Amino acid sequence: MVGRTSNETQDYAGASGAPCAFGRRRGAGTMLTEPAIFAKDTSCECRAPHEKLSIAQARRGTPMDRPVRVYADGIFDLFHSGHARALMQAKNLFPNAYLIVGVCSDELTHKYKGFTVMTEDERYEALRHCRYVDEVVRDAPWTLTQDFLEKHQIDFVAHDDIPYSSAGTEDVYKHIKEAGMFVPTQRTEGISTSDLITRIVRDYDLYARRNLQRGYTAKELNVSFINEKKYCLQNQVDRMKEKVKTVEEKSKHFVYRVEEKSHDLIQKWEEKSREFIGNFLELFGPDGTWKQVFSERSGRMISYAMSPRGSPSNSPPRQLSPSRSPSPPSCWPRPRPASPSSPKEASASFSSMSEEDENDK
C-alpha cells in the first residue's frame, strides 16, 4: 500500500502519457487554491451512472462528468516528496482522473506496522493540501473490501507492483490485481519515512542539542539531567569555537591589510630613494653639475692668478728730471716695518712715518 512502505515513486507523466494537469480543476467544482475535501460517510455522489471501465477505455478518455475514480492508500507519515510523486503518478494515469486517497488511522497503523511520528489528524491534513489529491478518506481499511470499493465507486487502485505482505497475507493487493483493477506506479529510491527516522536516530545528539538551543526543555525532549548538562557544555564549546574562528578571520583580514599598507609604503620609499639617488648623481656625479661649476671657478681663479694686475688707466704720468735717476714709483709696495714691541717704539715709528711723508711732499 502507498505510504505503508517507503511511498517512493519516480517523476513521470503516467501510463497514459497525459501531461500533468496543474492548472485544471480538482473535480467536484473545487480549485487548486482550496484543500481537498473529505469523503462522506455515505456513498459517493456521481452525476453520471457509474459503469465499470476497462483500462483501455479509461486511457482513451471519459466524459467530464464521468471521471475515472482512482484510489491510492497508505500511512503517509512525515509526508515527503516520495509520497507526493506517488500521488502525482496516480493522478496522471488517465486523462480525466479523480484521485481518492485513503489514510489509515493510528489504531490500524500501530497494530500492523508500528508507531508513527505524526498523528492521524496531522496526516489527514497533510494529504488534503497535496495538489494532486481530490478527496481524502479518513480511517481507510488496511485491506480493501468489495463493499468499500462499491461505496466509493472506485474504478482502479494505484500502487507499486511489489507484493506487500501484511495482515497475514502475502500481498494485500492480490485480489485487486486478479480483478483487473490494479494500475502499477513506480517507486523512487532514496527517500522514505524510514530513511528520515533513521537520520534523526543516527544524529540524535545533534538534534537534541539543536532543540535545546531553540528553547525546548530537557523534559520535553526526554533527556536526562546528565545528558542535558553534556549537551549544554557541547553547545558552549561550539560557540567558543565559532568566536575563535571569527577572531581568526578578522585577524587574517587585519594582517592582510597591514601587509598591503606595508607593501605600498615600501614601494613609495623605493621610488623616493631612486629619485634622491638620481638627483645626487646628477649633481655630484662624474659629469655632474657641481663638477662643471667647480671647474669653471677653478679656471677663473688660475687665470686671475697668472695674469698681474695692471695700473689704473686714469693715473697722470709723472715727469722725471734728467738730472735725477728715476725713483721707484710711490705705488710700489714699501717694506712693512716690524711690529713695535712697546708703546714708545710705536709712537717713535709713527713720528718717523710722518716725517717721511713730509719729505715726499
Automatic annotation (TrEMBL):
Q: What Gene3D superfamilies does UniProt report for this protein, alphabetically?
A: HUPs (3.40.50.620)
- Known function: Catalyzes the key rate-limiting step in the CDP-choline pathway for phosphatidylcholine biosynthesis.
User: What is this protein's gene name?
Assistant: LOC112227647
Pathway given for this chain reads:
Lipid metabolism; Phospholipid metabolism; phosphatidylcholine biosynthesis; phosphatidylcholine from phosphocholine: step 1/2
Query: Which residue windows does the record flag with biased composition (Pro residues)?
Result: 325-340
Domain Cytidyltransferase-like per the UniProt entry, residue ranges: 71-199
Composition bias (Low complexity) maps to: 307-324, 341-353
Q: What class of enzyme is it?
A: transferase
Q: Key word tRNA processing present in the record?
A: no
Tell me the keywords, alphabetical order. Lipid biosynthesis, Lipid metabolism, Nucleotidyltransferase, Phospholipid biosynthesis, Phospholipid metabolism, Transferase
By sequence similarity, the record places it as follows:
Belongs to the cytidylyltransferase family.
Q: Where is this region: Disordered?
A: 304-361
User: What SUPFAM superfamilies does this protein map onto?
Assistant: Nucleotidylyl transferase (SSF52374)
Q: Does the keyword Lipid metabolism apply?
A: yes
Task: Please list the GO terms describing molecular function.
Answer: choline-phosphate cytidylyltransferase activity; phosphatidylcholine binding
Task: Give the Enzyme Commission number.
Answer: 2.7.7.15
**Record's protein name:** choline-phosphate cytidylyltransferase
Q: Which reaction does it catalyse?
A: phosphocholine + CTP + H(+) = CDP-choline + diphosphate
